[in-house]
Amino acid sequence: MATQHSRSAARLMMAPAVILLLGWMLVPLTMTLYFSFKKYLPLRGGDLGWVGFDNYVRFVTSSAFWPSIYATLIIVGGVLVITVTLGVLLALLLDRPMWGQGIVRILVIAPFFVMPTVSALVWKNMFMDPINGLFAHLWKFFGAEPVQWMSQASLPSIIMIVSWQWLPFATLILLTAIQSLDGEQLEASEMDGAPPLKRFWFIILPHMSRAITVVILIQTIFLLAVFAEIFVTTGGAFGTKTLSYLIFQRVLESQNIGLGSAGGVYAIILANIIAIFLMRIVGKNLDN
Amino acid sequence: MGQISLKQITKSFGDVQVIPPLDLEIKDGEFVVFVGPSGCGKSTLLRLIAGLEDVTSGVIDIDGADATALPPAKRRLAMVFQSYALYPHMSVRKNIAFPLRMAKMDKAEQDRRVTAAASVLNLTDYLDRRPGQLSGGQRQRVAIGRAIVREPAAFLFDEPLSNLDAALRVNMRLEISELHQNLKTTMIYVTHDQVEAMTMADKIVVLQSGVIEQVGSPLELYHTPRNKFVAGFIGSPKMNFMTGAEAAKHDAATIGIRPEHITTSTTDGLWKGVVGVSEHLGSDTFLHVTLEGASEPITVRVDGELPVHHGDTVFLTPDESKIHRFDANDLRIA
Amino acid sequence: MARAVTTRRKAINTALAWAIGLLIFFPILWTILTSFKTEGQAIADPPIFLFFDWTLENYAIVQERSDYMRYLVNSIIIALGSTALGIVIAVPAAWSMAFVPSKRTKDILMWMLSTKMLPAVGVLYPIYLLFIKMGLLDSRMGLVVVLMLINLPIIVWMLYTYFKEIPGEILEAARMDGATLKEEIIYILTPMAVPGIASTLLLNVILAWNEAFWTLNLTAAKAAPLTAFIASYSSPEGLFYAKLSAASTMAIAPILILGWFSQKQLVRGLTFGAVK
């Protein structure tokens, strides 16, 4: 609904953003594709020619591949489950009348502001250290043997750290959603004799579904890219090597660009599968 | 000056033609109302005149010059929107002065015009408030003020009263009519409310599905509707329609008779029926009477005091001279 | 909906919420407390909560050892620069999408967001190579551009949702009043969208401040921001808890304070306008 003039103005004004993002996507993508078909070792001879699909085959058949997919899915899935579940509960609690709600909200939101490198370092050293960490003191206090968090429970540790960072985000979005629930709707259901649990299940939860989709979409985008938390804690050891981290090691640590690029292509495909899947849901949810 | 003529204009959104070829002449100083049910294309037509939408084909002349390709700002038209469209971050004064500021008018002249407009519209005390602090009626007046300071060739109103409550609507209706009397500027007014159309217009344009059904003065439309649609749309309560034997008696496919043209009696008359709901307005009472053998009740107007109740039998007699006859194509038979 | 709530109910809610709130906040609190301890007290067994000899020496040591100010300045320039650049590019695009939507608008938005899903590692080497070629490696300019690009989809998306809340009639009124497109955006749209632009700005400053993939991989010394500053503390050197805590506090304090002050706008921003 507009005139020809405003439509052409609109195209012109959208151009910079679209062109920049298109370039940002296409240029490196093309280069990655190009390298993925080459044997390319910058520190050991450089460009050693075309190798067809060798890199792709080697990447998938390497013993590290499937564990990395597993680690990626466990971390993303684990964090999503924890943050959404706890987020819903916490949002329900914070929606209740209480004293000092503003301050509680400030406390709850705080972890979101902490940079990933800091939170990973603090958790790793000051909480999860098996000798001097607070958890070790706590375990000893109850007479238990301190846990070697980073080696014995590496995946749960990372899930815990990342969940701590993302819980505020989930909570706040879900809280906003609850607060927007029409009071009359709840009162009507109360008049209809629905007990609290049913009210939650049939009124509150469906109302939050849109917010939950948004949380899942946004968090997945960021969780697939989790990097710093692994970089500064386990460095990819003890089964915490995600697909991203595996590629990072191939590229930067072993300087095998061809192999890393093939891995990159896999990661891009994986991300696209998840993206298409999510976009479908979210697109549908945002249309109304 | 504010003479506008539309020549063979059409508008399509994609493949859908919402306005088939349409011609219309609007004379300088006229108060023209576009009326029709929602979705009839009246707002689209107004937006085409305003230049907020492009016509798909055809020509729009304003004061004899081709304005079809001019942007809205160059057409010397002012518009009052349904939502008022005030700028929430500016004071009333700045809102009214905005078009003058855009025209780079000098500050003193801006002030003079704003002050004049404010005093005409009783807004002098509110000039430094924000729109959010005003009532619906006051916001409406600010929107009008913003339109009049420009001294435009014509005013366009897009359902300006639909967000006001009933009492205020009557007041604003009078104020806008008053304004037209004073300014004598062309006004084009869009509404779905036939009462507004009847009370304000010099000329009513009845639209349905983008097609002009009839153009005429309020009383022309009331007395000689060109077809069944206009007959049913103009007048409140609606005209009653009958088909079948009653219509055949008058050599018509359908006949129409307005509620105010039927006499009611408890003793005798042409038609016999049973009273359903009665609506008491004080001055008048509207009875919904179901005639023998009919499924739809017909509405009749009676004096306020007629003592009839739900379920009573009454007799109705139409005023033969006020019966409207329509042929099989719903067109009026003269 | 005001509803009478018993004081007891309210007290229970309050106690529970405060307990959970403090639990969530505890790691940050503990870090801040530890930063004022001596290294010995930092690892005391059992841990000391409040009654230790408060000292500022860790902060002095950290500044001396790592030149905190230089990293801080880099962080500020990179976060503000990338966000400002992003907003300048995103405002016109969001205006187009919100007020002159076409059939493809939704697809373009979705596509933009999907570029965010592109795994950074997948394109790390090409970007690294391009940066070397263009002399952008370890430069603030390079990071400003990269962070602007990775956050651009979010900025466009957020602004789009805010702009959509502004009735199109108001912009049309401005057009009728004789405003040009530029005047319409400067005098009407932008002032009306200030709250939305502010939340967009805040959220993206935070995202840029905390971004830890490109900032770690594309900088060495000159342009390194606080993420790199803190990463240099990742390998323990003797007794270092108190110093680590001081460095951590210094790295997060600016954004924590900014975030707390602008909590309201931020909550709005965090929902990406997608939740009402």
Can you describe this structure in just a few lines?
Chain A is mainly α and 288 residues long.
- What's the total helix number of chain A? 13
CATH superfamily of the largest domain in chain C: MetI-like
Oligomer: heterotrimer
Query: Separation of termini of chain A?
Result: 19 Å
CATH superfamily descriptor of the domain at 82-259 in chain A? MetI-like
Q: Calculate the mean pLDDT score of chain C and round it.
A: 83
Strand residue percentage of chain C: under 5%
Helix content estimate of chain A? over 70%
CATH architecture of the domain at 82-259 in chain A: Orthogonal Bundle
CA radius of gyration of chain A: 24 Å
Please tell me about this protein's structure.
The complex is a heterotrimer of chains A (288), B (334) and C (276). In chain A, strands 1-2 form a two-stranded antiparallel ribbon. Helices cover 75% and strands 3% of the residues of chain A. In chain A, strand 1 and strand 2 form a beta hairpin. Chain A is mainly α. The radius of gyration of chain A is 24 Å and the shape is flat. Chain B has 2 domains: 4-232, P-loop containing nucleotide triphosphate hydrolases (Rossmann fold, 3-Layer(aba) Sandwich), CATH 3.40.50; 238-326, Beta Barrel (OB fold (Dihydrolipoamide Acetyltransferase, E2P)). In chain B, helix 2 (92-102) crosses helix 3 and helix 2 packs parallel to helix 4. Chain B is globular, with a radius of gyration of 24 Å. Chain C folds into 2 domains: 7-59, no CATH class; 67-232, MetI-like (MetI-like fold). Chain C is built from 14 helices and no strands. The longest helix of chain C has 32 residues, at 68-99. Chain C is globular, with a radius of gyration of 23 Å. The mean pLDDT of chain C is 83.
Secondary structure elements and pairings:
The complex is a heterotrimer of chains A (288), B (334) and C (276).
Chain A: H1 4-36, E1 38-41, E2 46-50, H2 54-61, H3 65-95, H4 101-109, H5 116-127, H6 134-141, H7 149-152, H8 154-179, H9 183-191, H10 196-223, H11 228-232, H12 243-253, H13 257-287
Antiparallel strand pairs in A: 1-2
Helix pairs in contact in A: 1-13, 2-13, 3-8, 3-10, 3-12, 5-8, 8-10, 9-10, 10-13, 12-13
Chain B: E1 4-13, E2 16-26, E3 31-35, H1 42-50, E4 57-62, E5 65-66, E6 77-80, H2 92-102, H3 107-120, H4 136-148, E7 154-158, H5 166-183, E8 186-191, H6 194-200, E9 203-208, E10 211-216, H7 218-223, H8 228-233, E11 240-243, H9 245-249, E12 254-257, E13 262-265, E14 271-280, E15 284-291, E16 298-303, E17 313-318, E18 324-326
Parallel strand pairs in B: 3-8, 3-9, 6-7, 7-8
Antiparallel strand pairs in B: 1-2, 1-4, 4-5, 9-10, 11-12, 12-18, 13-17, 14-15, 14-17, 15-16
Chain C: H1 7-34, H2 39-42, H3 57-66, H4 68-99, H5 105-115, H6 124-134, H7 140-164, H8 168-176, H9 181-192, H10 194-210, H11 214-217, H12 226-231, H13 241-261, H14 263-270
Helix pairs in contact in C: 1-13, 3-13, 4-7, 4-10, 5-7, 7-10, 8-9, 10-14
